[in-house]
Amino acid sequence: MVSRIIPVEQFDLIIFGGTGDLARRKIIPALFKRFCDGQMPDGSRTIAAARSDLDRSGFQKMAREAIVAASENELDDSQLSAFIDALDYVKVDALGEEGWQDLAAQLRPDCVRAFYFSVGPSLFGDLADRLHTYNMVDENTRIVVEKPFGRDLETAKTLNKALSQRFDEKQIYRIDHYLGKETVQNLMAVRFGNLLFEPLWNSQYVDHIQITVAEEVGTGGRGAYYDKSGAMRDMVQNHLMQLLCLTAMEPPAKFDPDAVRDEKLKVIRALGPVEPHHIVRGQYAETENTASYRDDAENPSSRTESFLALKCEVKTWRWAGTPFYLRTGKRLAARDSEIVVVFKDTPHSIFGEDAGRHHNELRIQLQPNEGITLKVTIKEPGPGGMRLLDVPLDMSFAETLGPDADTPDAYERLIMDVIRGNQTLFMRDDEVEAAWAWTDPIIQGWEARNDVPKPYDAFSEGPTDAALLMQRDGREWRNIAE
Predict the structure, then answer these.
(1) d(CA 173, CA 428)
(2) Does the N-terminal peptide bond of residue 383 adopt cis geometry, omega within 30 degrees of 0?
(3) What number is the average pLDDT over the span 291-303?
């Protein structure tokens, strides 16, 4: 099965922070893949803007190396050279005046103009001001901003205000790469494109929902930064929140940016407060071959969590009484991101106690192998009576869609959506602020209680208290390494 490629309009994409880690690892390789698939029309250009002392050829060399490093397959040198030739570089001082006139002179008035703020949020306001000062904003202009979008409600409001003074909300694309993953979008297709699931998607039939984003890696070279944010700010407030919204939201009237985001906003505003005994925070400990979190953070007294599990409830008619369990952490048993919808047991088993308890599960796996699995109950083969067994109906994208199916990286989809002007998979200002309004009291609560994160072994399932969180309710987490 080969996907249909829909070309976008001709564009100028300007990447502020174009020599940084995100640009080299994700943005530039994503653009190259879209170029190879024929989605970028002739004449489209990418211009990196940064403080580095580079010229055009120096940046092109850097970009070529980044693409080669990111590629898992052999590259077509003619395609690579053609893409590299369309790259340019301008040295720009975000806080000064150097380079801005040179950048403005390169932009064309007759195409889509997108500015990607691949920089820290402290620079968003300065960049927005200078884009207007040097008359680089027109009706076809879009800006893309990366997380973290604030560290609490107050700073998020400040950032929103700084951007809204210079741009209309329809020009602002707050990117969360989790929403660009094929399986996340397939969650909406599974729910709203199949009569099979939506009638069962409520508290009458669903026992609980688990959302897990687990990583094997530690904080690495980001220890100092991470120690100022932690799992709640770095993962739960944005990535896990978005996954929760797509799982719990009502069907929008149409697949339209504001219609979808209106329904997600309703979910966030329906989240109830989280009780202290429904929160588990942890830090990975030192092992024989790995440093502890505190060593990585270079803070021996750190109380920042590298693991977080919590139980919350969406207080709506659809979900009243159905718990949502969220879990994320570093240095866990495996890299695994998934949403698991656990359906209730049958109200009465006709097969007797020997058959055991069985239930259906719908597992939406986001990484490392994207796919959807439905667990159903069948008879165990053999002549020994009616014994039941749970087996998966498995749809791995790589296996089901065939060898020609190329699952694109999230950034490929999201950058092209920016050029199209489609904001469906991007966060709106009120959505960001609502998420922080729910998150802030949780953080303030554990800070007021002087909570100390529970230690856990590296490459484990996390703190034992996380297992107890579920066991108290008669439930258990799916094994991360399963």
Answers:
(1) 8
(2) no
(3) 95
